[in-house]
Amino acid sequence: MAERRAFAQKISRTVAAEVRKQIAGQYGGSPQLLKNLSVGGNATSNAIPLTEAVEPVDFEEYLITHPPLIESGPLRDLIEFPPDDIEVLYTPRECRTLGQAVPEEGENDPHVRDCVRSYTEDWAIVNRKYHKLGTAFNPNTLDKQKERQRGLPKQVFESDELPDHSSYQDDQDDLKRRSMSIDDTPRGSWACSIFDLKNSQPDALLPHLLDRVPNEEIDHHNEDQRKSNRHRELFALHPALDEEEPIERHCVPDVPKEHFGQRLLVKCLSLKFEIEIEPIFASLALYDVKEKKKISENFYFDLNSEQTKAMLRPHIPSAAISTLARSAVFSITYPSQDVFFVIKLEKVLQQGDIGECAEPYMVFKESDAAKNKEKLEKLRSQSEQFCQRLGRYRMPFAWTAIHLMNIVNSAGSLERDTELEMGLSERKGSWSERRNSSIVGRRSLERTTSGDESCSLTSFRPATLTVTNFFKQEGDRLSDEDLYKFLADMRRPSSVLRRLRPITAQLKIDISPAPENPHYCLTPDLLQVKPYPDSRVRPTKEILEFPARDVYVPNTTYRNLLYVNPQSLNFANRQGSARNITVKVQFMNGEDPSNAMPVIFGKSSCAEYSKEAYTSVVYHNRSPDFHDEIKIKLPASLTDHHHILFTFYHVSCQQKQNTPLETPVGYTWIPMLQNGRLRTGHFCLPVSLEKPPQSYSVLSPDVPLPGMKWVDNHRGVFNVEVVAASTIHTQDQYLDKFFALVHALDEHMFPVRIGDMRIMENNLEAELKSSIAALNSSQLEPVVRFLHLLLDKLVLLMVRPPVIAGQIVNLGQASFEVMASIVNRLHKYLDTSQDMHGRNSLLSSYIHYVFRLPNMDPNSPSPGPGGLGGSVHYATMARSAVRPASLNLNRSRSLSNSNPDISGTPTSPDDEVRSIIGSKGLDRSNSWVHTMGCTSAPWGTSPGSSSDSKQAMERSGNRMSSHTESASFLQTLTGRLPTKKLFHEELALQWVVSSGSVREGALQQAWFFFELMVKSIIHHLYFTDRLQSPRKNRFPERFMDDITALVSTIAGDIVSRFQKDLELVERLNTSLAFFLNDLLSVMDRGFVFSLIKTYWKQVSTKLYALQNPTLESLRLDFLRIICSHEHYVTLNLPFSLLTPPASPSPSVSSATSQSSGFSTQVQDQKIANMFELSVPFREQHYLAGLVLTELAVILDPEADGSVPWMFGLHKKVISVVHNLLSSHDSDPRYADFEVKARVALLYLPLIGIVMETLPQLHDFTESYNQWGRPGGPGTEEQEAEGNSMISQTVAMAIAGTSVPQMSRPSSFLLNPQATRQHGSFSAESSRSLLICLLWVLKNADEMVLQKWFTDLSVSQLNRLLDLLYLCVSCFEYKAHFLFMQGKKAFERMNSLTFKKSKDMKAKLEEAILGSIGARQEMVRRSRGQLERSPSGSAFGSQENLRWRKDMTHWRQTSEKMDKRQRSVRYCTAEVCFAFSDPCFASDPNFKAPPTLALVLLSLTGAWIGLDAVITDH
């Protein structure tokens, strides 16, 4: 036999025979790749339907039994988690001040030590080092797309260039081209190259065109060309999905820090009166008229000249730099239209009332200084005398107010820095060159009408304000109530204040938004804020805010300030002379005068601290009002002897012989502690006429001491308000009692006095439990402020039960209950500070930064959490794995007072747990579900068993807390106190055995307890050096049982309550998913997979019973969160070898393939398992199997056992896959092509899934109804031709045989009935699915793909080619101007371009079909017998357009081009030309994808030069 040609030797005879078998009609219908969704199905008994969960592989066992063969490198990293995956970091907290805010050295009580520790200890952070590589932080997002595409070259296409002439000129050009002669044909046109070859200039020869080059070399060259300079990331070129915040994203919470509102910087520049005769002192504060509250402390500033200050030198020898501040930073948490700056002025006390003293300032003018020189000198001389004698006393002088939002709104409307002049009298304001604005008269007093949106204080332009008028203070109207009336009146047009005679002055103030980090700033505690370069520079003071409403922010810094505000005194009924009254305020730590403490802050131009402060004096007023504010620095630890002493003096303004300057006229005091609690609030105190007797400080002045004389018969005559700004004192009775009892246990000091009670050790247990329960009654604001310390103490009580009266008291249940209550209160009332998952920001920041296991701080020697607690007397009830034989709890009696109702002989705690779980019917194979609080019966139980299960749960509430042992008894048996409990074990236990409202509260905020548990687990593993130990040995079986029961019950709650309380179920669903995601990093991964199966099984059972898309949506959210794990690829065992099942039965897809004509006889089962959702694939690639199974089930509702109601979820499930692949594509760990190929193997079944969804995909082709969809033009023609994009004539020609055109059986074509019954996908979903397919084809191993393609039937290959063409149409680059110029412009541009491309494709097609050769074409040309188009143009003329079906003129004629020829033409050259989405087109080396070549190789067994042609174009 003659030797066969090399080309023929490579033809696959098997494939050709298979085609002929298809033509003969031996099978028909569409090959369904993914049938068998129903439980019955066509599968064999060993096959598991896609709707059922498979048993996951034992992950840890698999790693042990299949050791890696790779020593190192990127592939080796895929096998196991990196050793540095999790780390516990102790990060020093950032301190904004140069020095740490801590109390002075000395003996501090335990509560102070705990508070200081809580405010200064390092953050305990668990860091998952590779967490940012998970899908939650996918870099291929819309906001990052431009940055990632920045390096791509800009491509310019001819189709993008707009025509140079108008449309009319274009039409004329068309006519000219139609009638031109051959000689007029321009050089370079296709017509010229055909008809005038002799006269045309030769093109440059192509080098090496006729060289003989082996096909293998061409293939290798083309492959190198395709891979060189290619953009590595496909998804970086593809527009990201327009999604909301990814559900799998868990953002790191903000670091706990001190609260600040919107901050204003106020600079006081100058204060000038018409006359300058004495020092004037000013203060500035913020007031909220609507709330009737002062919302800041006073800022005192001194703008006097040095000469004027010298008048007071005898009384103020030196001034501290901190009291010289002239600028301040105010904080406003709740800005509104009702906020005012109030400026108050004081002067040195002198003889005469306020009106007399203010008269010179209203009469004399600066312009008349020369005329009134003598009078002014006299006034100045009198002032010097008063300053020398009465320099320590002040009197009220004047005040004014500035409506803050008037300034902000006026400044915000200007184009540059603004100068505003404010006054009461009408002045003519003008816009000068500097755009100065005068807000005068009525405008300065009217209220702005804009809404709350205009109350932003962060973006207005700085304004310089000039205040020109002040109001004289009235001695009988100094109270805050009078001030609020004045402020409310100021905003009315007919203001009473407008009719008053003002004091003329000029106060210049700068108001601007405060910079983020101002220099030279002092805190309210006078600590220097960073940066503070030079201590000698005049500072800026931060002014403490008193928010108008509660602010819910935990304390993070030490602060212990007290503000004393004397308000009024009534000496009307006091006998004797007492008219010029001042109050001296002292903070005493004893009763001797020398015990006055230097803790009172100075005001302005004085010492930093002093031992006493005086209120201002209202001349000749026996019942004065006061407006003073005395600021005190409280000692950290207070005793019963600390008190505030008020001494009332009559000041003699007129100097007389034998008359003292000040005469004491009364005394009263406030003890700082009452029953151990700081005393604050409003007081109406009686005033004693005599000095208090010995030991008075421990008693209240309300107690009538014998022998003492009181003003007005011991009635209250002095009103004072005491306000604390303290992070030490809770100022809540319930919190105070709880902390006091806990610290009493720490110190073991009894009896404890709380309130009127003396608590002895024998009743401490009951009081402690009642105090824990009473925490629910505490105010929310102090609970939030002391949240960190409170939760720390509750954790400590859970894991280290105290020993009281020789017995261990288990407080785990009580602590868990109140913890659940607290987190629910925060969720309910602070709903604005929650993330998308309902996680409260305060609680999540506590878990992330603050929470740590007790006694686990490596730098803390004390037994408490991070140094918490001193000598703590605690014992524990840990269920030790090695329990002494002598400790026979089965025979011991209950010795605890925690549950006196329990009788009998209890079993061991472990046995008790088993009995509890057994009473619920717990099946460790995850079949038991508990649905406490639900009316429906649990899964797997009859309705009648629900109540039994509930009763069993209620009876089991005392699993661990029912039994306590004598500490001495336990120590006798074991030689030591038992080991402390582990918090995560105790937490899981308490949660499992909880019931009723407690369990409901825990479910409402399940995320909190899950995250606490995870951090406790990681801390425990870290501190016991088990993070690198085998995962199967990390946790005891009892803890695993508790986790299993917990997951099972919560899954039951999800499926039983999603129709009743969807909001709760959504939170619960995401919380459970994140919990399991976290457990994959620390626990036995096979065990976690079994927990996922537990959830999956329960949801599936309910899902296919109800057919509710909401439940399926919940499951997709769950799956997406689980698969967002940063080591998702490793969890799927990418190196596992998929072996056929032990029995000879084929896989699910294989069984289906046999019924639809697959050539399964030649398939390799291992390869088939890789491309199908077979049981081995779903078991070994567990998470990937779940994802692809969901995709297959949702996208194929027509299969057996279909669920059409799922169709609406296709976008969501596609986004899951898209997100995963996009994340893999950009992951630097998978940058190596071998690694990426391994990752792609996990998604090989996606090819079959997408092939099966082909009829549903959006039609991106130019022609309509490409896939046989009814309802459009050309439907009849398509029904006649069938659905295939490739005709059997071409297929047979490729296969090496010939079949008459009329003998084509319809059974070869794709089934026309395969059209979607429920509608098609959207363009966005289709595009996302196709890009996922292309990623798999691009990155998968070519040999594996080729093997699978070879084993596919022709029908499948036919569909695959259709799918590839759809990809081409989807991502084909389309000129921008088409959308503006229309179809005609597009045809014209095509007539000028792509001619050579078109003819090359035509020649290629004809060469394959054998219809015409080069010789025949030359003969026909020489004879002028070329075919004419219907328009009369010759072949190659203007009508010879680029080959596009809907753009060609000849398509509209009766001469139809054979669609069989078009199919081959599109499925070869077009695939390679048109991968040109704007981003794809940016890659000049993005040539023909090798997938097409592999498909063609599978069809023909040889390349036949196609890839060479493709690559050249």
UniProtKB/TrEMBL annotation:
GO terms for biological process: axonogenesis; small GTPase-mediated signal transduction. It comes from the Eukaryota. Residues 162-182 have a biased composition (Basic and acidic residues). InterPro entries: C2_Dock-C, C2_DOCK-type_domain, DOCK, DOCK_C/D_N. Residues 559-725 form the C2 DOCK-type domain. Residues 938-950 have a biased composition (Polar residues). CDD domains: C2_Dock-C. Residues 886-899 have a biased composition (Low complexity). One of its GO terms (molecular function) is guanyl-nucleotide exchange factor activity. Residues 136-182, 886-915, 933-966 are annotated as: Disordered. Belongs to the DOCK family. This is Dedicator of cytokinesis protein 7 isoform X8.
